[in-house]
Structure formats: C-alpha cells, structure tokens
Amino acid sequence: MLRSVKILSIKKILALSLSLTFFAGSSQTFELDPVNKKDTINIIDFKGMKQKHWVVFGRNKPDTCFAKTSRVEDGFYGDNRKKGIWTSFFCSGNVYKKITFQNGRPDGYAIIFHENGKTAEEGTWKGNKWSGPYKNYYDNGQVQQEFTFNQAGKREGVQKYYYSDGTKQIEGNWQNGKENGVVTEYHPDGSVKKTVDYTNGNADVASIKEFKPKKPVITTEEVASTKKVVASKEETVPGDTKTPTMLNGYHVLFNKDRQKTKDGTFKDNRLMEGKNYIYDKNGILTEIEIYKNGVFVGTTQPD
What we know:
Mean pLDDT: 83
Low-confidence stretches: 1-25, 217-225
Radius of gyration: 28 Å
Structural class: mainly beta
Largest sheet: 16 strands, antiparallel
C-alpha cells in the first residue's frame, strides 16, 4: 500500500515539472503605450494569440509615408481576431476611417473621412459590402449620394444624387443593383432635366423626356474646371485593335485585358453620359464613376 502511494506522488511531481517547463518556454509579451508609458498594448498571450488593445505603428509598415512612431491602426483583439471599432489614420495623423469588427470581420457601422476631417462615407459594412442605408459626402460636408444596399451589396430601392450645394441631382428606383422604373434628373436650379423609364437596367428610349432649365445650368468655364474623362489610346472598341481617332455617340471601351473601361455616350472622345470603370493594380474592379453632361457626378459600388 505504501509503495502504491509513493508511485502516485512521483507521477504528480513529474506532471508538475512538465507543466512548469511548458510555461517557462511560452511567455506573454507586450509593449507600453508610448503616450503615457503605463498602459500595456500589443499583448501576445502564452498561446501566441493577440489580445486586448493593439496599435500598429509606422515602424510596422515600412516603405510607407508613416513615420516610425506614427499610428497606422488602433483597436482591440480577442483571441487573435479584431473586435469592436478599429481606427485607421492618414499619414498626417488625422483619422481616416473607423470600422466595426465582429469575430475578425468588418460587421457594423463604418465611417470614412476626408483628410480635412469631414465625413466622406458612412453606413453599415457587412461581409466586405455596404448593407442598408449609405451616404457619400463631398469634402465640403454636403451629401453627394444617398443609397440603400441589399444584403448582396447591390443597390435597392430609392437612390439619390446631389449637387455639391445640396440640390437634388438624380432620383430613381433601383432593383438588385440596376435601374428599375422612372429615373429623374434635375438641373442645378431644382427643375426637372430628364426622365427615363428603366427595366432591369435597360432604358426605354421612347420614354425619354428632356426639359430646359429655368436658369442657365453651368457655364463653359465651370465645366472645364470639373473632373472629366476622355478615351485613352490604350482602350479599344470591339472589333478594333485601337481606339478610333475620334469617338462620337454610344460606345463601350475595353482595356488590354478585355475588361470594360467605359460605357456611354461620347462627344469628341469625351465621355458625356455613362460610366467609367476603375481597376486596381491587380485588375480588380474597385469603383464606377458616373458622368452626366460630361461632368463627374459621383461613384457607385461595383455590382
């Protein structure tokens, strides 16, 4: 009997020894917040998982515009996954965006800022898509676009565009990302400019009605000073190896990778009415610019 007890004790001692050896080899790491020199940040626990308050500094993002001690991101981790509100910064130190995370993924209210501090975009970001009510703002603080997105990230219901002074520019109904029903355009003086009846994104040409403004819409000097887009030499139309010398009328253009770049009506190579497709360096469609009367009026999320 005594021999049995002695054997059990040895087993317990060995187990305790192994446990102490494991923890000695796996220590928690952290930094002190450089602002107050007291609060702990960037904690990695005994299991190698990120926990609690984390700050990403410029030194963690080499070859960028950030100084080594500048904050790039600031937020919280729980078991290696982002949670709560994460704040990103411009190189100037001004807040760039605040995104809500759940279980390591963007899921909740999101707000993006212009560098002057005014709101640029806000809404609910879910599954890497905008969902529900969304607003886009000019850098003067006025609302530029007022959209509603469905769960698939496509525009649904009444959508609105505004001029930079707050006057309504376009209003209509969208269904699953495409115009559906009457879309009305307005002159800057508030009077109706055009109405078009759409079905699943296709315009009924016979339904188009155009109206003259009550006041002059925009001067030649003002048009010249606004953002505009023209066809480049690298873009082609179907069936041609290069862009014609002069584009007039309706055309669809493609880049060398056969991706659509422009879709709309041209006048002397300038996109007057339609869409300009923007791709990143990896060839992924990131944004679609909308042009009306030769002038940039806003962007829309890719379908």
